[in-house]
Design a protein that fits this description.
The complex is a heterodimer of chains A (111) and B (114). Chain A has 111 residues and is mostly beta strands. In chain A, 0% of the residues lie in helices and 61% in strands. In chain A, strand 6 (55-58) and strand 7 form a beta hairpin. Chain A is globular, with a radius of gyration of 14 Å.
Chain lengths: 111, 114
């Protein structure tokens, strides 16, 4: 059974801190790993990582895929209160369109 | 504008009733999904469909049913057999790309059992 595990489940930091969120996976025939940010309703897309694109960066957010360790990290530098959200990791495996999500990391950034 | 439309946004169900959540997309996507999210939790896959007239069970399909008669529509029925249906339900769809897939979400539907 495909599995995606995120850690920590929750995290509380102060504005300006740097955070690292973790995602590990066990899937057959890995195709891609996706990061999403969810504030109140639908998740919004952050990054997609594949074998041909293992590192992505956008502003204060960056993500790296470690195919050897079957994991990914999401870094947020100089955190702001607007970064408070649930961050979701999802993995797509080959052979089907099934997309498996982790439980998410709830990040709270205090002023 | 292209997108995914879920309705209703809020729904109350009496115990023993079946209810149907609607999901429509005009993105011409082949694959569609239904996820359930409980407070503070991640998304759990209920059902997914890769093509019209075909669908597969996800991890928590018991007590739910779906149909995929049209490419743009993937309704979810929460049956009376689902013992704890109060949750946030998200519909999604994907377009297959050579380098992988990105998933597009609807705005979600809140279902509460009263």
């Amino acid at each position: 059974e495909d599995k995606v595990v995120q850690s920590p489940l929750s995290l509380v930091v102060h504005e300006g801190d740097t955070v690292t969120l973790n995602c590990s996976y066990e899937v057959t025939n890995f195709r891609s790993l996706l990061w999403y940010k969810q504030e109140k309703k639908a998740p919004t897309f952050l990054f997609m990582l594949t074998s041909s694109g293992i590192e992505k960066k956008s502003g204060r957010l960056s993500s790296i895929l470690d195919k050897k360790e079957l994991s990914s990290i999401l870094n947020i530098t100089a955190t702001q209160t607007g970064d408070s959200a649930i961050y979701l990791c999802a993995v797509k495996s080959g052979g089907s369109e099934k997309l498996v999500f982790g439980k998410g990391t709830k990040l709270t950034v205090n002023p | 504008d292209g997108g995914i439309t879920q309705s209703p946004k809020y729904l109350f169900r009496k115990e023993g009733q079946n209810v149907t959540l609607s999901c429509e997309q005009n993105l011409n996507h082949d694959a569609m999904y239904w996820y359930r999210q409980d407070p503070g939790q991640g998304l759990r896959l209920i059902y997914y469909s890769q093509i019209v007239n075909d669908f597969q069970k996800g991890d928590i399909a018991e007590g739910y049913s779906v149909s995929r008669e049209k490419k743009e529509s993937f309704p979810l029925t929460v049956t009376s057999a689902q013992k704890n249906p109060t949750a946030f339900y998200l519909c999604a769809s994907t377009v297959s790309e050579r380098s992988g897939n990105t998933i597009y979400f609807g705005e979600g539907s809140w279902l509460t059992v009263v």
